[in-house]
Amino acid sequence: AASYTDSSDDETSPRDKQQKNSKGSSDFCVKNIKQAEFGRREIEIAEQEMPALMALRKRAQGEKPLAGAKIVGCTHITAQTAVLMETLGALGAQCRWAACNIYSTLNEVAAALAESGFPVFAWKGESEDDFWWCIDRCVNVEGWQPNMILDDGGDLTHWIYKKYPNMFKKIKGIVEESVTGVHRLYQLSKAGKLCVPAMNVNDSVTKQKFDNLYCCRESILDGLKRTTDMMFGGKQVVVCGYGEVGKGCCAALKAMGSIVYVTEIDPICALQACMDGFRLVKLNEVIRQVDIVITCTGNKNVVTREHLDRMKNSCIVCNMGHSNTEIDVASLRTPELTWERVRSQVDHVIWPDGKRIVLLAEGRLLNLSCSTVPTFVLSITATTQALALIELYNAPEGRYKQDVYLLPKKMDEYVASLHLPTFDAHLTELTDEQAKYLGLNKNGPFKPNYYRY
Predict the structure, then answer these.
(1) Would residue 43 count as lying in a domain?
(2) Are 165 and 22 part of one and the same domain?
(3) 58 with 124, same domain?
(4) Starting at the edge strand that comes first in sequence, how are the strands of the sheet with 279-280 ordered?
(5) What stretch of H or E contains 98?
(6) Is residue 234 situated within a structural domain?
(7) CATH, residue 306
(8) In which domain, by residue range, is 403 found?
(9) Does one domain contain both 217 and 153?
(10) In sequence order, what DSSP letters do the residues of 142-175 get, joined into one string?
(11) Contact assessment for residue 98 and residue 122, using Cβ atoms and an 8 Å cutoff
(12) Whether residue 198 is found in the same domain as residue 257
């Protein structure tokens, strides 16, 4: 995302700088605290598009359902996350925060949060070492012990397991919002190593449909346009994976007139792709002819060095899945290939015969690294996260075992209903007779748990 800070000539690492906010606190580490005012404006703009969080804040003026909660968070640090953090603060929580991605932090937003008293440790373009250092600074604090975890990708949870396993005695629950992080939690649970309850927000209906499907439908084009200025009409594109993210990407590209191929391992998703009018292929069959390759699987080594060798000149390669494992970027860092940085987040990798491919964001998340995600969609995700934190924090002893849970459907419906006023939308209410006929409570939940939207 374009940031006021991209052109800064200041090469000092934020870790080597002594900075204080206007209240004299230095319990944070951001690129430049002086940008707080710019960041504050961005947060205020985001608030306009996040109606549900603002509604939660209004309700919190009376009750403080997170009083006493000490939340340690590791998510993308953007204006939208800032609205979530400040809402959690309004609900009574104390928060410490790090970034879950080395490129997606908006420096001026991190500065605004630090200025308003949040211990934030994040800047755009961290090194791998910085990344873990920031997480450690959030967790390892004299006289402060977290009792809730909000994670995106599972790195924070993993770090606490590895370095500070005793902390889990005090932690009431983990809220995780990405496919990758949820997968890691289920693995821990299976191995009997999950020692606190966890809430899988990623698979709550509101998150799945809106963040993964509708959001990617809009942000895939944005990310590609900003980085490459390309024309989509008539281009041949292969989208690997036809889950919610793949469905969104395919719909947008098809609407722009691209010729879209899909690869898939699951016969049900594959049949959906066929019904939606896409050619189902193996990557090998089309790799020589396509103009763009987009991965949306959450898997590893989906695009291998062998595939990259066979791509045609100026093929664009990018990833929309959570982690940076889908494209084997490491295999491109060899002496015979030349890397040329064209602009921020765009590299040309050049083969000895002069062929080049265009690699975006070094194989990391395209929409978060190279563009922005629609705020409204993040409002849905963030509200879901806030409600999951409230639910786990306030649950009576024994309601949740040491396992991974989905958000109760009632809460999913509540999140959706908080967003309807934006569209001046009016819900129909059941009559007593209708409710009885359907066997439902008039106030919901309206669908059984197994219903697929």
Answers:
(1) yes
(2) yes
(3) yes
(4) 279-280, 259-263, 236-240, 292-295, 315-319, 356-360, 346-350, 338-343
(5) strand 94-99
(6) yes
(7) 3.40.50.720
(8) 14-207+374-414
(9) no
(10) TTB--SEEEESSSHHHHHHHHH-GGGGGT--EEE
(11) yes
(12) no
Mean pLDDT of the chain: 92
- Whether residue 365 is found in the same domain as residue 380: no
| Cα gap 7→30, rounded to integer Å | 16
Which residues are within 8 A (CB) of 107 and not within 5 positions of it... i.e. 6 or more apart?
Answer: 3, 4, 5, 30, 31, 32, 35, 39, 123, 124
CA 365 to chain centre: 9
Handedness of CA 212, 51, 3, 18 (dihedral sign): negative
pLDDT at 7 over 80: no
Q: What is the value of pTM for the model shown? A: 0.80
Query: Is 422 domain-assigned?
Result: no
* Contact of 220 with 248, CB cutoff 8 Å: yes
Choose the final residue of a domain: 370, 400, 434.
Answer: 370
Rounded Cα distance between 69 and 171, Å, is 10
Do 332 and 380 sit in the same domain of this protein?
Answer: no
Q: Is residue 388 part of a domain?
A: yes
Residue 145 makes CB contacts below 8 A (sequence gap 6+) with 70, 167, 170
Q: What is the pLDDT of residues 224-259, one digit of tens each?
A: 999 999 999 999 999 999 999 999 999 999 999 999
Residue with tokens 């083969």: 351
Residues 62 and 179 in one domain: yes
Q: Which two tokens stand for residue 114?
A: 């630090």
| Stretch 105-119: mean pLDDT | 96
The answer to whether 72 touches 148, Cβ cutoff 8 Å, is: yes
The pair of structure tokens assigned to 325 is 């494992």
244, containing H or E segment: helix 244-255
CA R_g for the chain: 22
Name the binding residues for NAD(+). Answer: 243-248, 264, 367
End-to-end CA distance of the chain: 32
Q: Enumerate the known binding-site residues.
A: 78, 152, 177, 207, 211, 243-248, 264, 367
Residue 314 CB: number of other CB atoms within 10 A? Answer: 13
Instruction: Give the sign of the dihedral formed by CA 402, CA 119, CA 37, CA 90.
Output: positive
CATH of the domain at 148: 3.40.50.1480
Question: What share of the chain in percent tops pLDDT 70?
Answer: 98
Annotated binding site for substrate: 78, 152, 177, 207, 211
Provide the domain count of the chain.
Answer: 2
Model confidence over 208-230: pLDDT tens digits? Answer: 888 888 989 999 999 999 999 99
**Ranges 2-16, 33-47, 212-226, 395-409: which has the least confidence:** 2-16
**Chain centroid, CA 339 distance in Å:** 28
Peptide bond into 445 cis (omega under 30): yes
